[in-house]
């Protein structure tokens, strides 16, 4: 909810968003449902097409081109791969990267 309330923020959707899903509604209409209520999202919403079988270079290029000083949450992939990618983001790009554990919450 906090991410969506500011035009300074962005939501990075990876892959195809099926019509009728929350991701597609967010992408097409800039709306999402939070706590049972429809919310308008002010944050920038963009879709990037990354294959799960390739795309490391594309992911790295996208991370290198981020503006500002965002925290990157690495949430998709095998835990070891996520940790290695987060380490790369921390050391090579200089951004804070986090690999959340299942059920872990964050204040943004």
Shape: globular
Mean pLDDT: 85
What is the distance, rounded to the nearest whole angstrom, between the alpha carbons of the first and last residues? 9 Å
Domain module tally: 2
Cα-atom Rg, whole angstroms?
15 Å
Which sheet architecture does the biggest sheet show? 2 strands, parallel
Low-confidence stretches: none
Percentage of residues in DSSP E strands = 15-25%
Structure description:
This protein is α/β, with parallel strands linked by helices and 108 residues long. It has a two-stranded parallel ribbon with strand order 1-4. A two-stranded antiparallel sheet has the order 2-3. A two-stranded parallel sheet has the order 5-6. It is built from 3 helices and 6 strands. It is globular, with a radius of gyration of 15 Å. It has helices spanning 22-29, 56-64, 79-93; strands spanning 10-14, 31-34, 37-40, 44-48, 72-73, 97-98. It has 2 domains: 1-49, no CATH class; 51-103. The longest helix is centred in the C-terminal third of the chain and has 15 residues, at 79-93. Helix 3 links the parallel strand 5 and strand 6 (97-98).
Describe, in short, the structure shown.
With 108 residues, the chain is α/β, with parallel strands linked by helices. The chain is built from three helices and six strands; from the N terminus they run βαβββαβαβ.
